[in-house]
Design brief:
By secondary structure, this protein is an alpha/beta fold. 32% of the residues lie in helices and 21% in strands.
Length: 281
């Protein structure tokens, strides 16, 4: 029986509730935090945040696949929204950039993550960072509130990605922009990987084709997109062997199929005429 969108969301919510209780070392040796499934010494997905201002180790669960806040061009006083905020890592980095005069809102649909992020914010004494429980397809924020939206390896977990881009467009101010890190595909993954729940919660099997991802942004009205960073993700053999035979692994490696982490920027067009007659002829 095929899983519904709600089934998939429940699965991801359950998995990330478990992840919220794991330590960072466990998450970093895993399929993007999906479980202790790799013995390789390197982190499969995420980049190193430790050199960024505002970084707090307690808020870094090792779940990302990029550094969107590094590329987001956040200014003092900006209102920033982080989609899938987890324990608050990107929110706290964004807060160092937007300063006391700005505001940062993290949205996550996992209660355990919201609880962890709020505890971290209280420990840090940040009064202009808040965390809201809600779905990214229907964000708990008003229209036109954000200057900048960031997200790190989250949209690939959402079944209705088109709805998320519609919501991003709604909540951005005219002229606002986003910088999103995510996982995309080139070619078709073997079905055994795509169907595996652990790999799904680990950012791979929920990903879509790179070109489809970029076309979703354009279809929802975003302009001036920039591919800010791209790197190929190599899945270690000790993960692949859980889903594929040795012959299937060899065949998979001979294909041009690829899994990529991208960081992409796009803008919501600035407002033009606000009412009939407001523009000069």
């Amino acid at each position: 029986m095929e899983k519904t969108a709600e089934d998939l969301k429940d699965m991801v919510r359950e998995k990330y509730s478990e992840i919220a209780l794991q330590d960072r070392q466990t998450n970093q040796s895993s399929c993007c935090g999906a479980g202790g499934c790799s013995q390789e010494v390197y982190n499969i997905m995420s980049d190193d945040y430790s050199s960024l201002d505002g970084y707090n180790p307690q808020a870094d669960l090792g779940l990302g696949c990029g550094l969107p806040t590094e590329f987001a061009r956040i200014k003092k006083g900006d209102v920033v929204i982080d989609l899938g905020s987890g324990a608050g890592n990107d929110c706290f980095v964004a807060r160092s950039q937007t300063g006391e005069t700005g505001k940062v809102i993290g949205i996550d649909f996992t209660p355990a993550m919201i609880q962890k992020a709020r505890a971290n914010a209280e420990k840090l004494g940040f009064h202009n960072v808040e965390f809201r429980l809600g779905d990214l397809e229907k964000m708990p924020v008003t229209e036109g509130i954000a200057d900048v939206i960031v997200s790190n390896c989250v949209l690939n977990l959402v079944p209705d990605k088109n709805a998320v881009f519609q919501e991003i467009y709604r909540v951005l101010k005219p002229g606002g922009h986003f910088s999103i890190s995510d996982i995309v595909l080139a070619g078709a993954l073997p079905g055994k990987i795509r169907e595996a729940a652990e790999m799904y919660a680990g950012c791979v099997a929920g990903a879509i084709q790179k070109q489809d991802y970029l076309e979703l942004m354009e279809a929802n009205g975003f302009k001036n997109y920039i591919l800010q960073k791209e790197k190929q993700i190599i899945i270690p053999d000790d993960i692949l062997v859980r889903y594929l035979s040795a012959a299937e692994i060899d065949a998979f490696k001979q294909t041009e199929t690829g899994i990529f982490s991208i960081t992409v920027w796009a803008e919501k067009p600035a407002a033009s005429c606000c009412a009939p007659g407001c523009c000069s002829n």
